[in-house]
Automatic annotation (TrEMBL):
Transmembrane segments: none annotated. SUPFAM superfamilies: FMN-binding split barrel (SSF50475). Residues 13-120 form the Pyridoxamine 5'-phosphate oxidase N-terminal domain. This is Pyridoxamine 5'-phosphate oxidase. It comes from the Bacteria.
Length: 121
């Protein structure tokens, strides 16, 4: 993948995140990778993604510790993919989280907003 020198998704790239399963990768304190799917990923705007943290597992602990985040969305039939590097803003039980979660089936989830720093395609 080639770095595109932007922190904004094009409409086509945003659609890859909207229409495909997104994988999120973090690293733990020892540098070990953790990768998993995030079915609740949404596009807030060209520079921000959001997902609901329901499991509160290893990836979430890595994010709270400050891990950089890589996300990949790929459309297998067309062999099209986009990867972004991002940093997280975590919302646990604050007014913003309550507002977002009121529209979902997951009232006990946390809300993670992802600020896109780099885009690769």
């Amino acid at each position: 993948m080639k770095k595109l020198n932007t922190n904004k998704l094009t409409e086509e790239q945003a659609n890859l995140f909207k229409n495909n399963l997104v994988y999120l990768s973090t690293v733990d304190a020892d540098g070990n990778p953790q990768v998993g799917p995030k079915g609740s990923m949404t596009v807030l705007d060209p520079s921000h993604l959001q997902y609901l943290e329901k499991t509160k597992g290893e990836a979430y602990e890595n994010i709270k510790r400050g891990s950089k985040i890589a996300l990949v969305a790929a459309d297998v039939p067309s062999h099209t993919a986009v990867m972004v590097l991002a940093t997280a803003e975590v919302h646990e039980d604050d007014d913003y989280a309550k507002k977002v979660l009121a529209k979902t089936e997951f009232p006990n989830a946390f809300v993670v907003n992802l600020n896109i720093e780099e885009v690769f395609a």
